[in-house]
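>> received
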Amino acid sequence: MTDKRDFLPDLGDRKSTLLDLLNQSGARAVLRKPRVDLGLAEQLPYPFLAMVKQVEMRIALMLAVINPAIGGVLLIGPRGTGKTTCVRSLTGILPEMEMEDVTADPDPTGKFPTYWDTVKIVELPLNARLEEVVGGINERISIQQNRVKLEPGILSRANRNLLYIDEVNLLDDHITDAILDAAAQGSFTVRRGAMAGTFEARFVLIGSMNPEEGRLRPQIMDRFGLRVPVRGLTDPQDRLEVYQRVREYREDPRGFAAKWADVTNDTRELVGAARELLKQTVIHDDAIELGLRLVNDLDVDSHRAEYTMFEAARAHAAADGRDVADVDDLRVVAPMALRQRRSQFMVDFFRRQDEEDDHIRHTIDQMLGEKHAS
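>> returned
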């Protein structure tokens, strides 16, 4: 195993791993000279490292960014606990990667031109229409240029990005079905009359919900790799720190972001380094053995359980600058990957099925015994 320090980007005297930053109760802001307010309207997300505590939520989101194969994150908790703020704060630390320009015309093979850009968070509004989600005919081009063109929807724009759905449990069923199909296939097809177009839709699915407002359909629940219960902080000092930071951010968003700029930039570099390291990160045999035993002992039927758990363990090791995921990595990610995957309904169903099978075999044996006796 290689020394994890060999994988860290050069951050000067601020040498630490991504996990070192995430596990802090609150990273210290690095003061910078405030910029002059030019009166420009801009959306400045709350700095990711300025979140107070909520370590498991931050780690889960970061693991999904490092390794999209995890399958995304579902945040479950009451209103006002920072779920949406934390997701949107990822904007400042997302890495760059090659993207497809789905707004341009594809080449004769159906491929769109590519370019390098920062990974983005694409939000799906609850009131979005199905045509806005999957795409439809561009009416403006149809009128102005007298030709029909399929316009990509939200799912297509989310390709190779993060698709965030707040209050995901309140989505209309037909929208949910479209997302499920795209997430399962990695692509989707839009048909409008005689026209049809197939678009890639390989996105990291992130959802948040308040369980008081209704349950989430099991079909989409299963599509989220990691699940994190998010509760309000209980320490009065932590809650006071939340209040002070939020107040400062609302009064001067740009100045607040500037204070956290250095640690935000460090985190962005560490995320990129972790994504590269992930390509060569493996899982130790001891961790694999423990994970398989754990899934079996917990009566988890879904094979997505160990896949998600092992991929999350690899991402956790890469976030710590290591190329081998061990038992300690598995211990951290197992609750996030396995909670709510054990279905008591299915456990009881298969138990009743086994009892019924035993009864059938016992009846057959009795009948054979009576035949031989006669």
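>> The chain is about 45% helix and 15% strand.
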